[in-house]
Design brief:
A hairpin with a 2-residue loop joins strand 5 and strand 6. The protein is of the alpha+beta class. The chain has a five-stranded antiparallel beta sheet with strand order 6-5-7-8-9. It is built from eight helices and nine strands.
């Protein structure tokens, strides 16, 4: 029992490291060869996990080999457009100027029902409103609407907008994000002083505290629904 327990932990940690090294992608964004590698890695990990008679190294070496293969293919793909197109495929235009390209649908075995469903999910029920619909190599459908159907932006109205930037969390579930404080050239002394203004004596009392680019500090205590905000 202890041997199986230890083997399971080792293989789990190994697979987690391998998947982490392979990069940050959602399952739906994996390229075909990446999906195949992920499935194979999972299968290779379960075999020595289920059968303790199989040496653990028999599962570790193939998993590391697949990781090396993925790194090599990814590196070569960055250098060669032809190989990238061969391995991952190329985007396909399904709709052009409001007209469905039937030949592409037949080539990809992509039926009209699926196409219309994807368009509705992206809030484009009318094909006439679409300039281009492109099926990406990940299987995601990208839609470029006609200029008359695009949402109005401040730039269209010649309205000047202020820089928004990124709101940074300073405290999450009682834990201070020191790296974010450093990015803002602030320290824990300043943070504690701000919390004291709201009657908060310790960072452990805070569920979330964040600071936006306007200098507005958002604070929510644990176990409360009321939020507090202040400005630097």
């Amino acid at each position: 029992m202890l041997i199986i327990f230890a083997r399971t932990i080792i293989l789990f940690l190994l697979v987690m490291i391998v998947i982490r090294v392979m990069g940050k992608r959602q399952i739906g964004e994996l390229q075909p060869f990446e999906l195949v590698l992920a499935i194979m890695i999972a299968e290779l990990a379960t075999v020595p996990m289920e059968d303790k008679e199989i040496p653990l190294i028999n599962g570790i070496i193939p998993i590391l080999t697949l990781l090396l293969l993925q790194v090599i293919i990814t590196f070569i793909s960055l250098k060669s457009d032809k190989l990238r197109g061969l391995i991952s495929g190329t985007p396909s235009v399904l709709i052009e100027n409001g007209k469905i390209i039937e030949s592409e649908l037949r080539k990809l075995r992509y039926n009209l029902t699926d196409l219309l469903e994807q368009l509705r999910l992206k809030n484009f029920p009318n094909i006439a409103d679409i300039e281009y619909a492109i099926l990406e190599t990940s299987g995601e459908l990208s839609i470029i609407p006609k200029s008359q159907k695009r949402p109005v932006t401040p730039e269209d109205l010649n309205i000047h907008t202020a820089y928004e930037g990124l709101t940074l969390p300073l405290i999450m579930d009682g834990h201070v994000k020191l790296n974010n404080l450093q990015k803002l050239n602030l320290d824990t002394k300043w943070l504690n002083a701000e919390l004291n203004k709201f009657g908060i004596k310790s960072t452990t009392e805070v569920l979330l505290a964040s600071l936006d680019t306007k200098g507005e500090l958002y604070i929510q205590k644990k176990g409360t629904k009321a939020n507090k905000a202040g400005t630097l």
